[in-house]
Amino acid sequence: MTLFDVVQADEVVEAVLVIGNDVDWIDECQFMLHSFGFPSFAAQSPAEAFEKIGNRSISTLIIDQNLPGLDGISLAEDLAARTADEGRELRFIMVAEHATLDLVVAAVRASVVDILQKPITRDDLRNALLRVRGIKPESSTRKALASQLTTLSLEIQRLSNLMDEALPSFGKSAPVPEPASDEPVSAEFVRDLLRKEAKRRALLDGRLFGDCTWSVLLDLLAAKLDGREVSVSSACIASGAPTTTALRLINRLVGDNILERLPDAQDRRRDFLRLSPDVESSLLAYLPDLRKN
Questions:
Q1: Burial grade of 10 (CB within 10 A; 0-12, 13-18, 19 or more)
Q2: Beta strands 259-263; 114-117: pairing state
Q3: For residue 142, what pLDDT is reported?
Q4: SS3 letters for 206-257?
Q5: DSSP character at residue 37
Q6: Where are the beta strands (DSSP E) in 20-113?
């Protein structure tokens, strides 16, 4: 039985409270919970967590260990003690940068069900929610594993090509000539712009042109013209920015309806990114002008 079967079988799905002071991290968790079918609430401080816990539909809590003023383990113990008087039993999932031995021991003493290390993935969270419900996560089937390995291989190859193309092309043939301005924008033309953007952003170790928004948009447009899907993790790597920075940017672009984020129908642990139709149309109308420069 999978997490999705459990959710669909329940008449009332219990809510999850996400507690942390990083808004982007909270949004990421809530997005995954929503895709699993779980309603969720958020708290950015211990005080807000105590207020939200009054909602009796909340039974599972995901807590960032690094909370200002009160660590996650202590907060879990205080919340459990407060609700115990009401006959409620809370289940805790702790999230930390590093799962040290001291943290594991403290978590066991606080009856924490699971500890996850950042950054957490859909698979991590899915399995933790199954364990919270006392269900053993299913092992991946041979077919699903083969599919994931194939996809990963293709993404690594694509990223490798981008890295090679961004390096100085000593001894390489001249770039493909750009088509006439009245021809449709091609994937090769967009990739050439992406190579130039990577070199521009590398100037002075990235201190001049650090924003990776244009790289993300070009990468997704090239993928669309090639007929390929791009996962969130692949887009983060291709952006050239640190993962947390890239995720923060992607979340903002999704929130501004510049990008669309869609769960993979074949593998629900992964999400794809696409340009919104309006942004895609605007880019296709704008890029031909760059051929004249």
A1: exposed
A2: unpaired
A3: 43
A4: HCCCCCCHHHHHHHHHHHHHHCCCEEHHHHHHHHCCCHHHHHHHHHHHHHCC
A5: T
A6: 40-43, 58-64, 91-96
Q: Are 16 and 40 in contact (CB under 8 A)?
A: yes
Structural contact between residues 28 and 251, judged by C-beta atoms closer than 8 angstroms:
yes
Model confidence pLDDT, tens digit, residues 58-76: 989 999 988 877 788 889 9
d(CA 287, CA 214): 12
233 Cβ neighbours under 8 A, 6+ residues apart: 155, 270
Joined together, the tokens standing for residue 252 give: 């903002």
182 CB-contact burial (10 Å; exposed 0-12 / middle 13-18 / buried 19+): exposed
Task: Tell me which residues of the chain have a pLDDT lower than 50.
Answer: 1-2, 4-12, 139-146, 148, 168-181, 206
Whether 194 and 219 have beta carbons less than 8 Å apart is answered as yes
pTM (whole model) above 0.70: no
pLDDT tens digit sequence for 73-82: 889 988 988 8
Instruction: Give the position of tokens 């942390």.
Output: 20
DSSP for residue 68: S
